[in-house]
């Protein structure tokens, strides 16, 4: 209702400015049409009605106006405006006794002081729900994409109505939201028990009882682990960072039925393995701070919830000490406002400023002098617009969202505009790509325009295109149905179309006949998606009749409910989730819409929910699309948890006494065992003096677990104080984050679920190191500015080059300036828009003075037209005292405090782009100054070429074509040039790697839609290229395979420079999709330069040439295109029947039937291979054997047609000390699997060994186990032939290639196994062959030792093997070759070297045909050799 009233005020002001043009007493009806239809309650059959009127006296500004109407109460809203000649007032007419009936009317009469009268007649209706309004179900109760439970239904008789035309709705723990023109509702539920669900409209049951999401027969297990465990009194280390617990359950629901103290439980999923899912939940102490309270957790047990865990906890929050006085200093000089206050003590709480917009400022911004113990003085300056028509109050407060704890002051506009509003002559929406449109305005205004507000987004004058034209790229999943010029930023619900009064045209989505729930022929390409360690892709197909093929349809796949804080007023549509949608495109070949989407690796498992969004108000749940459109996700080790601190060690100790020079710090072991740690940062602060230290973290050795050191060098003079880890932000390789802050920007307890300190709730000082300074000296003299230089006091923020350089010289003649605690230079424009120039180094001038430098590139149009204020904060001396300087302070010192701004319109600047894959193609760019662009240059590696334009839309969007195909993991750049030969910025774009390269034919639709528009180009190409690369096996860098609809230049989540202020607490998983959200044209993460000489991969040509593979510059290994495989992509897989199963021992003998290799030049030769397990032995640290256990007797089990199990005991002195299990699986087709954090592709005709060894009694802590395997490969011919062996390695695997003739056995060795459930490093080596039979030109064998580190309960290794047909035969020049005399007579030398690696072992199969005339003697000799070797 508050928003409703504010918007009536807006209309009042608008219409008032028009009424002044008329004479006498005027009454204007300002009630929106939809408020004149109301629904009666079933109990009294009466309606309530609220009508709004504006009454204007155009001749007497002091007029007194009175109005009456039968059965109505007339209420003064308190809103009125008058000028020198006129007066207007907004009134509300209220009644609660309107009887049921349509087209009723009442007359309202008004008179003024002069006796003039005027009247107006109201028409309205009061409707009653009847059986004709009975609702129909569209989709059943299910978990939605937002994690809520919901159903969709259609209510008859309310089509083409606004939301406020509709009757009230409620239901079983439900509330309904109206979704579109056809009476469709979404009912959101928070069920707390099984049972039927029904919806009531105006207190009448109109929807048949629906099945509950939760079955009455569900019995969920729940294993509880508390953090901390067995501790009753808990002191949290961060405000609203509550203690946690995990519950592991077998529930198959996306949203399990659980409760906390019989109320709603705050939780999120973090892991799943097999049928078990682990959730992280919090103990909410906000209502019992410092009080012993029982905390109970319950889970479903049939018809009820039963208590599974209960604990009494006394949780004490982090107390705030910040108080802001009720009377602060506020001084306004033209459009610069200076404000300040004194307070203390202080613990790094945020301070909130509200003037039209809300801004949260963190230390050190605004802190002028003092320290956190004894008190401080706060002083800051900010800008307001010169001609703001909506001046208001300034609030300075320590509380959010309240503004009661602080002071307020009313501000005035330096150049009043008398509330005269602009005239929107015209606006239009032009579709660009996906859900993004170009919004163009033609606006006339007698005052300068300084900002435009569309929905809840403020656009500065980067939108100005000249001649009263303004252009901006808008996201139609955001609020775009309201617009204002120079107006207060005010989020207005989509459901109220107030903007019809200023001729604003809403986006042309769909006409009134469009039924958004009438989706036809929906189907999914793959019914199962396996995301275990790999990115998985899929395509949704569907049809819709009479729908424009360029309609902005988007797909959003399920995201868990508590993804981050929801500041949006509408919890059903949290915007941060809508940013993760995938666009639908029209496929003109199959005459269907299709959405190609990806799921990140190790994401959530189970039947997946999703929704199709047509705009922000209209969406269809997957349950309405039918079973053909459903799909299931397999995630063998789902990981939604961010990195955490597994071990924390303070050095040199938790309490330190400073000598002349001492380093203190933390050794932090960061663990992320599945996805791996990507990067992050940590901020440490001095508790008293405000000193600030930033540490950027990036993995160097092991992304899964590594120790990081953050250290601070302290010296005398000094003070005694604690040093505190105040802020942490860590990301894994899938952008799951962990975050911590002493005090959050916004009061949001759900941040607890992302706390990296979750293992350390038992130590409330874990983030503190106490420092004692024996001869401490407190110095209350500030660090003073001796010189402050700004390179540009006037900047054209419409140019490509907008860099400003600063030099700052400071001194403190008493204690000196503190080392390595850098100040911050702030730049502030209107709307509290503040950016930082980050200082990262210092220059010592004298023992008491220092110099700092920094540079910053201003955003496009930043500070235009009112300029930019400069300030400096965060200066610290050695005596426990900080200081800072507001713009007014710097002005008083005589240094530059202000930057004037100008803006050139027609210079091209690229600020955003659409997403593009490595396959290339068309690309949309967004920015400014594109209207005069005549050329575009594409730069990729050493290639530079010109691109063609498909379209230029105004000055803000351009469509390029001809982007060439690129290698995965690379980047390219674009430069535009206009007709004056002025070049744009060089804009870097990082293409994503497509997962779906080969797409099968989609299902044939039974009905094709009739598109209403034929596109000028086909929006979608169906790729036909064979899949190229398996996604990176070790997440050592940001995976390029997981694309988002993000402009290519959106800042990466892991900052390269740590901001000196506290970051936002819980960043979103992935960057925003909006192409103009981040106008920075230089990427945050600088691309790695292309090396002048790239290291070569194997093969001539490299990796078999561009048609067979490419060189991965990260791993320096070849990535082969199917069907090519091998070290250098010159071999092909040989398809052979599944070999016979050996029921005696786990050995595999593979031979090739006649006719399988028609490409071989030796058609009379048979190739065979044998893989076998030989022994297990314990070795010391020098690899000398301690104990050896030969495998003798195995127990065989047949698991499936292609999988066998072998079990044997390891005995010593007749006592079983361990057990070895071997599973052999045969793959007859290409299959993706995962093992130990690596994703692997099993080629057809591949045999994979999974070998597990349970607990073993190691002799000492230095000994290891070594598993011995043998690999043999032999040809039945020794004439004119060579054998060879080759060893090598890539980043995550090594390989062994044993070749005889033109066939080879290819073995790969992963460098990881699984020990005690965690990933462990495994080494491998080649063992010298001491058998009686030595290698020859036709026979080659190798023994492999898999070296296993110590473990406790179980270790698993996982080799596989297959046979290849090589491009060329082995020869005397091959590595380690042995040739027949006819072939060469020369030996390539003995086999030597150590093969590092493990688990993937490839023994290679046999090919070639044996004709009937081959001599039997030769054949028998070959068989005997093989069997002799297996028994050795």
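^ structure tokens above, recovered residues below v
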């Amino acid at each position: 209702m508050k928003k409703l009233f504010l918007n009536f005020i807006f209309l009042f002001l608008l219409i008032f400015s028009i009424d002044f043009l008329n004479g006498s007493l005027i009454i204007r009806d300002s009630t929106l049409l939809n408020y004149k239809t109301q629904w009666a309650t079933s109990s009294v059959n009466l309606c309530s009605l609220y009508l709004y009127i504006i009454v204007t006296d155009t001749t007497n500004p002091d007029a007194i106006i009175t109005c009456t109407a039968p059965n109505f109460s007339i209420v003064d809203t308190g809103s009125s405006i008058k000028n020198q000649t006129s007066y207007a007032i907004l009134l509300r007419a209220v009644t609660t006794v309107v009887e049921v009936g349509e087209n009723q009317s009442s007359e309202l009469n008004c008179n003024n002081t002069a006796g003039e009268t005027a009247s107006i007649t109201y028409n309205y209706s009061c409707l009653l729900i009847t059986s004709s309004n009975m609702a129909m179900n569209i989709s059943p109760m299910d978990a939605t994409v937002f994690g809520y439970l919901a159903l969709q239904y259609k209510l008859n008789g309310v089509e083409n109505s606004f939301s406020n035309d509709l009757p009230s709705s409620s239901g079983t723990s439900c509330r309904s939201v109206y979704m579109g023109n056809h009476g469709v509702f979404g009912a959101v539920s928070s069920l707390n028990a099984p049972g039927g669900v029904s919806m009531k409209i105006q207190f009448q049951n109109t929807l048949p009882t629906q099945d509950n999401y939760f079955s009455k027969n569900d019995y969920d297990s729940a294993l509880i682990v508390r953090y901390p465990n067995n501790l009753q009194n808990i002191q949290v280390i961060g405000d609203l960072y509550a203690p946690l617990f995990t519950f592991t359950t077998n529930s198959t629901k996306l949203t399990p039925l659980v409760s906390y103290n019989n109320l709603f439980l705050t939780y999120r999923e973090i892991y799943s393995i097999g049928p078990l899912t682990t959730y992280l939940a919090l103990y909410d102490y906000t209502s019992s701070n410092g009080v012993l309270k029982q905390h109970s957790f319950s889970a479903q047990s049939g018809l009820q919830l039963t208590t599974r865990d209960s604990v009494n906890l006394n949780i004490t929050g982090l107390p705030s000490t910040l108080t802001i006085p009720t009377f602060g200093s506020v001084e306004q000089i033209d459009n610069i406002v200076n404000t300040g206050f004194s307070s203390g003590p202080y613990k790094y709480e945020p301070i909130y400023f509200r003037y039209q917009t809300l801004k949260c400022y963190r230390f050190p911004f605004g802190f002028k002098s003092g320290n956190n113990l004894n008190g401080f003085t706060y002083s800051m300056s900010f800008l307001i617009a010169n001609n703001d028509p909506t001046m208001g109050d300034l609030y300075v407060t320590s509380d959010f969202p309240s503004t009661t704890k602080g002071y307020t002051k009313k501000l005035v506009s330096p150049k009043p505009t008398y509330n005269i509003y602009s005239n929107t002559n015209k606006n239009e929406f032009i579709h660009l790509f996906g859900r993004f449109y170009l919004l163009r305005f033609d606006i006339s205004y007698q005052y300068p325009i300084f900002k435009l507000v569309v929905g809840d987004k403020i656009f500065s004058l980067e939108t100005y295109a000249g001649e009263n034209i303004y252009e901006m790229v808008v996201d139609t999943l955001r609020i775009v149905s309201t617009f204002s010029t120079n107006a207060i930023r005010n989020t207005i619900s989509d459901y109220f179309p107030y903007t019809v009064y200023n001729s604003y045209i809403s986006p042309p989505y769909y006409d009134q006949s469009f039924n958004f729930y009438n989706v036809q022929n929906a189907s999914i390409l793959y019914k199962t998606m396996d995301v275990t360690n790999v990115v998985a892709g899929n395509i949704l197909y569907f049809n819709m009749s009479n729908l424009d093929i360029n309609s902005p349809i988007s797909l959003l796949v399920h995201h868990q409910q508590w993804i981050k804080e929801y500041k949006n007023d509408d919890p059903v549509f949290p915007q941060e989730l809508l940013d993760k949608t995938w666009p639908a495109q029209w496929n003109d070949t199959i005459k269907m819409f299709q959405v190609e989407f990806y799921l990140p690796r190790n994401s959530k498992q189970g039947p997946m929910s999703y929704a199709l969004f047509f705009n922000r108000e209209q969406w269809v749940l997957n349950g309405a699309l039918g079973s053909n459109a459903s799909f299931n996700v397999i995630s063998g080790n789902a990981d939604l948890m961010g990195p955490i601190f597994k071990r924390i060690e303070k050095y040199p100790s938790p309490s330190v006494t400073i000598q002349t020079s001492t380093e203190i710090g933390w050794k932090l072991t960061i663990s992320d065992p599945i996805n791996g740690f990507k990067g992050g940062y940590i901020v440490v602060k001095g508790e008293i003096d405000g000193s600030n230290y930033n540490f950027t973290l990036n993995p160097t050795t092991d992304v899964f677990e590594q120790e990081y050191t953050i250290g601070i060098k302290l010296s005398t003079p000094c003070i005694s104080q604690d040093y505190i880890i105040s802020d942490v932000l860590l990301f894994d390789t899938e952008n799951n984050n962990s975050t911590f802050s002493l005090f959050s920007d916004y009061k949001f307890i759900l941040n607890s679920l992302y706390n990296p300190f979750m293992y350390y709730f038992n130590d409330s000082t874990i983030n503190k190191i106490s420092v004692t300074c024996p001869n401490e000296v407190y110095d209350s003299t500030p660090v003073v500015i001796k010189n402050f230089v700004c390179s540009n006091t006037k900047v054209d923020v419409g140019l490509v080059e907008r860099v400003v350089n600063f030099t700052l010289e400071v001194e403190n003649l008493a204690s000196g300036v503190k080392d390595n605690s850098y100040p911050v230079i702030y730049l502030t424009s209107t709307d509290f828009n503040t950016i930082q120039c980050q200082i990262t180094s210092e220059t010592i001038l004298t023992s008491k003075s220092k110099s700092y430098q920094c540079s910053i590139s201003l955003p496009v149009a930043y500070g235009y037209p009112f300029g930019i204020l400069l300030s400096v904060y965060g200066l610290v001396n050695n005596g426990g005292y900080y200081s800072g300087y507001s713009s007014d302070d710097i002005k008083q010192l005589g240094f530059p405090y202000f930057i004037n701004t100008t803006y050139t319109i027609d210079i091209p600047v690229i600020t955003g782009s659409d997403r593009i894959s490595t396959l290339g193609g068309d690309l949309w760019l967004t920015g400014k100054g594109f209207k005069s662009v005549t050329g575009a240059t594409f730069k990729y590696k050493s290639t530079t070429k010109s691109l063609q334009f498909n379209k230029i839309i105004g000055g803000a969007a351009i469509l390029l074509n001809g982007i060439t195909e690129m290698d995965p993991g690379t980047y390219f750049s674009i430069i535009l040039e206009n007709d004056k030969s002025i070049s744009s910025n060089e804009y870097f774009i990082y293409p994503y790697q497509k997962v779906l390269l080969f797409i099968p034919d989609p299902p044939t639709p039974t009905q094709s839609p009739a598109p209403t528009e034929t596109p000028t180009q086909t929006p979608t190409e169906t790729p036909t290229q064979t899949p190229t690369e398996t996604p990176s096996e070790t997440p050592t860098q940001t995976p390029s395979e997981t694309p988002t609809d993000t402009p290519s230049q959106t800042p990466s989540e892991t900052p390269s420079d740590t901001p000196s202020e506290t970051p936002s607490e819980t960043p979103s998983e992935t960057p925003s999709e909006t192409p103009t959200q981040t106008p920075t044209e230089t990427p945050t993460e600088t691309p790695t330069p292309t090396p002048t000489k790239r290291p070569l991969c194997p093969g001539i040509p490299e990796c078999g040439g561009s048609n067979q593979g490419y060189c991965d510059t990260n791993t320096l290994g070849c990535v082969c295109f199917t069907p090519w495989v091998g070290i250098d992509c010159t071999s092909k897989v040989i398809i052979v029947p599944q070999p016979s199963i050996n029921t005696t021992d786990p050995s595999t003998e593979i031979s090739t039937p006649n006719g399988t290799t028609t490409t071989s030049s030796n058609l009379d030769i048979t190739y065979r291979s044998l893989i076998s397990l030989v022994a297990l032995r314990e070795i010391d640290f020098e690899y000398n054997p301690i104990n050896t256990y030969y495998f003798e007797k195995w127990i065989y089990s047949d698991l499936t047609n292609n999988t066998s199990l072998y079990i044997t005991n390891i005995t010593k002195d007749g006592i079983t000390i361990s057990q070895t299990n071997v599973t052999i699986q045969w793959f007859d087709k290409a299959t993706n699997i995962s093992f130990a954090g690596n994703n692997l592709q099993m080629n057809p005709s591949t045999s994979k060994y999974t070998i597990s060894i349970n607990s073993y009694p190691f002799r000492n802590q230095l000994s290891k186990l070594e598993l011995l395997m043998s690999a043999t490969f032999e040809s039945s011919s020794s004439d004119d032939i060579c054998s060879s062996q080759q060893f090598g390695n890539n980043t995550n695997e090594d390989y062994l290639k044993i070749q005889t003739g033109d066939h080879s056995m290819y073995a790969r060795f992963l460098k990881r196994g699984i020990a005690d459930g965690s990933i462990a490093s495994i080494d491998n080596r080649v063992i010298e062959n001491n058998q009686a039979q030595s290698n020859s030109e036709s026979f080659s064998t190798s023994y492999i030792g898999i070296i296993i580190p110590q473990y406790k309960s179980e270790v698993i290794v996982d080799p596989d093997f297959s046979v290849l047909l090589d491009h060329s035969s082995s020869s005397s020049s091959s590595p380690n070759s042995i040739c027949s005399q006819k072939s060469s007579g020369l030996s390539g030398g003995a086999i030597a070297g150590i093969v590092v690696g493990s688990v993937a072992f490839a023994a290679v199969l046999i090919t070639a045909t044996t004709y009937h005339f081959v001599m039997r003697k030769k054949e028998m000799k070959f068989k005997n050799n093989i069997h002799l070797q297996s028994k050795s």
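Residues 2-19 form the longest helix (18 residues).
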